[in-house]
């Protein structure tokens, strides 16, 4: 990491409350919170509403702490990527030192308070998640290997396991399958983003698959991972957290997801970038809907008492 490209002008605006909120990556936090809620809700043990609220709050803070530490370390590459150049650190509104202190403080608070509010198994998982995202993914994998998002995707897959552990104090097959669902979803989701944001990763020197192996190889990888994801997500319907709502959602969503992955795979590399970007952006947006609706279906089956009817 280097501060060389960060705006440190003395006239830079002072940090506002919203700048510290931005450090938490609130858009990513929505996914963290939602999947953690489903993991907690689907668990066979119920928490008191106050305990459940505390668990989700501290899981969210832990996810936000990871985001702040990620922005601290990646400030140099954020400054040269169009998508991230206006973040609080490269824009000079928050200093790297402030972001580091903020992230470390929230990390400690979130882990300790989750342990006190629920149990130390959940707190241990949260601590490992923060470590994995910041050290294993951000500091090591992201700038080293084109498989960065494949391995590093595990960090974003832990929240439902943490939610489940907060309720049960343990890890189970069901929570591992929820983890696996996000883990397999992450590569095609981010590779689609990389396809229409490739110049950003080129400029920043991040070895995304699009940069190291090209667009054609990336399209093939998206299709392969989408097919594997479809098989996994349909298999989850046969577990104790699956049910008729989940099965119906999985059938429809996987049909759409595989269809669009095939469209990406068939893209003509000589076609205009505008045409390619349209397909890739559509796939990226569908991927967000895909994950939210699948986890929502798990929650619906649980609420209706239909889970595990198979």
UniProtKB/TrEMBL annotation:
Query: What InterPro entries would the database entry show?
Result: Protohaem_IX_farnesylTrfase (IPR006369), UbiA_prenyltransferase (IPR000537), UbiA_prenylTrfase_CS (IPR030470), UbiA_sf (IPR044878)
Q: In which pathway does it act?
A: Porphyrin-containing compound metabolism; heme O biosynthesis; heme O from protoheme: step 1/1
> Which reaction is this enzyme known to catalyze?
heme b + (2E,6E)-farnesyl diphosphate + H2O = Fe(II)-heme o + diphosphate
Compartment(s) of residence: Cell membrane
What Gene3D superfamilies does the record point to? UbiA prenyltransferase
Name the membrane topology term: Multi-pass membrane protein
The organism's taxonomy opens as: Bacteria, Pseudomonadati, Pseudomonadota, Alphaproteobacteria, Rhodobacterales
- Name-wise, this protein is Protoheme IX farnesyltransferase
Summary of subunit composition and partner proteins:
Interacts with CtaA.
PROSITE patterns from the UniProt entry? UBIA
Q: Which residues cross the membrane?
A: 28-47, 53-73, 94-114, 120-141, 148-170, 176-197, 218-238, 244-262, 282-300
Further remarks about this protein from its record: Carbon 2 of the heme B porphyrin ring is defined according to the Fischer nomenclature.
Role noted for this protein: Converts heme B (protoheme IX) to heme O by substitution of the vinyl group on carbon 2 of heme B porphyrin ring with a hydroxyethyl farnesyl side group.
What Enzyme Commission number(s) appear in the record?
Answer: 2.5.1.141
The entry lists its GO molecular-function terms as: protoheme IX farnesyltransferase activity
An individual GO BP term: heme O biosynthetic process
Q: What keyword terms does UniProt attach to this protein?
A: Cell membrane, Heme biosynthesis, Membrane, Transferase, Transmembrane, Transmembrane helix
Q: What family does the Swiss-Prot or TrEMBL record give for this protein? A: Belongs to the UbiA prenyltransferase family. Protoheme IX farnesyltransferase subfamily.
Q: Name one Pfam family in it.
A: UbiA
Q: Which GO terms describe its cellular component?
A: plasma membrane
């Amino acid at each position: 990491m280097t501060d060389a490209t960060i705006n440190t002008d003395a006239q830079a605006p002072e940090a506002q409350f919203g700048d510290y909120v931005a450090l938490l990556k609130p858009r990513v936090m929505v996914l963290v919170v939602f999947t953690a809620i489903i993991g907690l809700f689907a668990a066979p043990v119920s928490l008191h509403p106050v305990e459940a609220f505390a668990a989700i709050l501290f899981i969210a803070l832990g996810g936000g702490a990871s985001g702040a530490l990620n922005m601290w370390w990646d400030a140099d590459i954020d400054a040269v990527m169009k998508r991230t150049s206006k973040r609080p650190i490269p824009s000079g509104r928050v200093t790297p030192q402030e972001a580091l202190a903020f992230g470390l403080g929230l990390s400690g608070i979130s882990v300790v308070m989750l342990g006190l509010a629920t149990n130390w198994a959940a707190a241990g998982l949260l601590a490992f998640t923060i470590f994995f995202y910041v050290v294993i993914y951000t500091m090591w994998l992201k700038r080293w290997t084109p498989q960065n998002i494949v391995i590093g995707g595990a960090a974003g897959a832990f929240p439902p396991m943490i939610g489940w552990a907060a309720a049960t104090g343990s890890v189970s097959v069901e929570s591992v399958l929820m983890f696996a669902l996000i883990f397999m979803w992450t590569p095609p989701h981010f590779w689609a983003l990389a396809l229409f944001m490739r110049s950003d990763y080129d400029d920043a020197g991040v070895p995304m698959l699009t940069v190291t192996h090209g667009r054609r190889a990336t399209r093939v990888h998206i299709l392969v991972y989408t097919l594997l994801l479809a098989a996994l997500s349909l298999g989850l319907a046969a577990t104790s957290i699956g049910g008729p709502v989940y099965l119906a959602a999985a059938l429809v969503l996987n049909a759409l997801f595989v269809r669009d992955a095939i469209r990406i795979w068939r893209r003509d590399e000589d076609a205009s970038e505008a045409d390619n970007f349209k397909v890739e952006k559509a796939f990226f947006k569908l991927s967000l809907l895909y994950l939210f609706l699948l986890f929502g279906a798990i929650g619906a089956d649980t609420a209706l008492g239909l889970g595990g009817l198979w």
